[in-house]
Amino acid sequence: MSQSDHVRIFDTTLRDGEQSPGATMTSSEKLEVAKTLSRLGVDVIEAGFAAASPDDLKAVQGIAASVGVLAIEGRPVAEPPRICSLARAAKGDIDKAWEAVSPAQHPRIHTFLATSPIHREHKLRMSKAEVLERITEMVGYARTLCADIEFSPEDAGRTEMDFLYEAIQAAIEAGATTINIPDTVGYTTPDEFGRRIALIRENVVGVERAIISVHCHNDLGLAVANSLAAVQNGARQVEVAVNGIGERAGNASLEEVVMALKVRNDHFKLNTSVDSTQLTRISRLVSKVTGMSVQPNKAIVGANAFAHEAGIHQDGMLKNQETYEIMRPETVGASQSLLVLGKHSGRAAFANRLAELGYPLIGAELHKAFTRFKDVADKKKHITDADLLALVSDELYQPEELYRLDALQVTCGTGMPTATVRLQCPDGELRTVSTVGTGPVDAVYMAIQQVVNLPVTLLEYSVQSVTRGIDALGEVNVRVRWDDEPVESDESRINPQSGGSRARVYHGHGAHTDVIVASAKAYLASLNRLLSVQQNRTARDADADTQASA
Predict the structure, then answer these.
(1) What is the 3-state secondary structure (H, E, C) of 231-289?
(2) Cα separation values, 11 from 38, 85, 274, 329, Å
């Protein structure tokens, strides 16, 4: 595939996507997402912002040392993906980025500096000349460490074109191999943004020495449209996130960009290396590890993306599927069929169907999932693919069970809703607590809180059914805030004198035919995630103290 007709897919789910409030992932979760992205076939994985925290640096380093040095089995291309870390245009950030990505076979440093008038005046307080000098110095410094350098003029969508040309040219002359044009605040329209890319290609001296990339935000709902307009005007890398997650309204959606180029190849005449049959799997994985549900009407991967309820539509589908579907569900790894699986089904049939859905489980993972399947099959007459995917996701993408739900009993009504909860504690002890609440879920959460005893605030609670019917599985997502945790704000990371702080948000997910049980599992998952993060941080600090004393 020649460079002229190949569009690189640069995935920033693990960096910009993780910056969504409450979407923080553990190192092990980030590694699992990175492996799945590699299997998907993305060209570049922006694994994090190494200078943001020691945890981020460690996570990026782990991904670079594993995913970045081998072609994951099932990857559609032989080479491992490029592993990238974001860095401000500062030596300290760039050094941390290089430390993190250097183990990769194809490392990349991505550095940025704002160029728009509002950013220059109010955030940077720098003149145009000072901005150009910083770009030259820092891109040049990064190039002494790494051969693959990407530079982004932040808020390029609102930067004067003449100055944007100068900034890009300075970066290329200093050694940048990719120039990313970000619509940082989702301000432009497709015709404006496409024209901006065309003008850059026409007016920047030496632009042919670099790949032009775009990174579009979705504040006006135009991120995908702007990205495609840029591609039509010569951009050959698109920065995307799974499910479109990211800062504020999010980023251009990976699955939408990829499928637009695939389904309308007659129009764009461009290709990617992405295996589209794995899009549904990566969507569900990211949804579970971030706790961010995918809206049912989401293009490509939403629950209703291939659903037809209107009689006219159903009639057309029965006669010819192309009447109302421009792509088949299997092309994105989705399934509409009901499974003939139930309580009499064996492990082999169960494992085979999971493998067909993209989850080839073996050993302990298969045993655990099969046990859950049998439990649900005793309660449901029909097990659908959606049920299976919910069960597997619930089992595989949960934090370590420091506290485990052993038994639960509730009574509710117009009187006093009461919950009796029995938890297995980290020391192996079984503790039973009964409480009265304003409702059954409140009573359950109060009982769990009496055992775990963490100062948290419940920020969000949502429940939805996986499939239709009175026996449907219920999925619950919660977000909690640990009120005793001081965490540096983004501003205090940039300016240590600002003294800002915020509490970190942790999410949890649970699935069960009983929504009260699913609610308890989700709440416990959020608390277990919080405790796991704190244990890892304590262990890291202890290691640092040991090394310092040595």
Answers:
(1) HHCCCCEEEEEHHHCCCCCCECEHHHHHHHHHHCHHHHCCECCCCHHHHHHHHHHHHHH
(2) 10, 12, 11, 23
What is the rounded distance in angstroms from the CA atom of residue 242 to the CA atom of residue 280? 10
Distance CA(244)–CA(490), nearest Å, equals: 22
| pTM of this prediction exceeds 0.90 | no
**HSE of 205, CA atoms in CB hemisphere, 13 A:** 4
What does the pLDDT look like over 68-104, one tens digit per residue?
998 888 898 889 999 999 999 999 999 999 999 999 9
For the record, the structure tokens of 343 come out as 């309580």
C-alpha 329/C-alpha 357 separation (Å) is: 12
**CATH architecture of structural domain 404-538:** 2-Layer Sandwich (3.30)
User: Could you read off the pLDDT of 98-157 as tens digits, one per residue?
Assistant: 999 999 999 999 999 999 999 999 999 999 999 999 999 999 999 999 999 999 999 999
CA atoms within 13 A on the CB side of 457: 8
| Rounded Cα–Cα distance for residues 36 and 41 (Å) | 9
Residue 499 confidence (pLDDT) above 50: no
Eight-state DSSP code of residue 6: B
- Find, among 250, 177, 181, the residue nearest to 219 by Cα: 250
Residues 6+ apart with CB under 8 A from 230: 181, 193, 194, 197, 212, 214, 216, 238
SS3 88: strand
Q: Show the tokens assigned to 443.
A: 């009573």
- State whether CATH 3.40.50.720 applies to domain 3-290: no
Distance set, CA 385 to CA 106, 287, 322, 388, 392 (Å): 38, 17, 23, 5, 11
What the block records as the tokens of 496 is: 């240590």
Give bridge partners of residue 505 from the DSSP assignment: 481
**Pair 132, 172: CB distance under 8 Å:** no
- Give the pair of three-digit tokens for residue 508: 């949890």
Angle subtended by helix axes 190-203 and 223-232, to nearest 10: 30
Distance CA(388)–CA(392), nearest Å, equals 6
**Coil, strand, or helix at residue 488?**
strand
Task: Output the CA torsion sign for 266, 267, 270, 273.
Answer: negative
Predicted pLDDT at 467: 64
